[in-house]
């Protein structure tokens, strides 16, 4: 049993919780809680270490997770070490270190009802995690993160996604050339893939634009919106009508409304009986 914070593995875990540079260097990240760890196992992510205290009472789910984890991947710690690794007021019964997945755009299936959410330079880990959760709930095929963005594997992002990070392909695409190459491949395979974004200057309402074609929904940074690069990439701009005094939507809300409208239109256009 590990009883000291000076243990080399524990020092690495602490670094993963605090430092983006360390997460990028090691290609690992930290997750906390039974639900998140169950999702990681369910979707076949590589759980490198499962961290738990044998002196703590475990739920049935927690016991099952410990049992399915190979002995060499289990790190037994005392209650003090567990509490210091957790960022919650009351430490979760299970913590884990998981390997990041490659940002391989070839993972995305090119299909006739393609629906991808593209987030340009998201700045808030909590907003990013919530948006990933909404994208998963609304049946997006993938989420792309472009530009200099908040860390996908920040513990706050992982926690806010409520497990959806593990269920849905979420890919970092920092280079515009990679995005353009993927779009060219997708258009060659599908014939048409539209990139649609919001703009306060647009004259077409979201619900009046056809979203039944293969679509990439582009949502800009919470503060400054989309970068100028997307002015040439986008095929269409729409506006989301607002009826109160607010002048804009939170980026996560805008993404959710966009994806919901796409799903609504596609459900209406589907042949009856399917």
Spans where pLDDT lies below 50 across 5 or more residues: none
CATH superfamily of the largest domain: SPOUT methyltransferase, trefoil knot domain
Give the overall average pLDDT.
94
Q: How many domains make up the coordinates?
A: 2
Q: In the CATH classification, which architecture of the largest domain applies?
A: 3-Layer(aba) Sandwich
The number of helices is 11
Oligomer: single chain
Radius of gyration: 21 Å
Q: Major sheet: size, sense and barrel closure?
A: 6 strands, parallel
Rounded to the nearest angstrom, the distance between the terminal CA atoms is 56 Å
H-E string: HHEHEHEHEEHEHHEHEEHEH
CATH domain class of the largest domain: Alpha Beta
Shape annotation: elongated
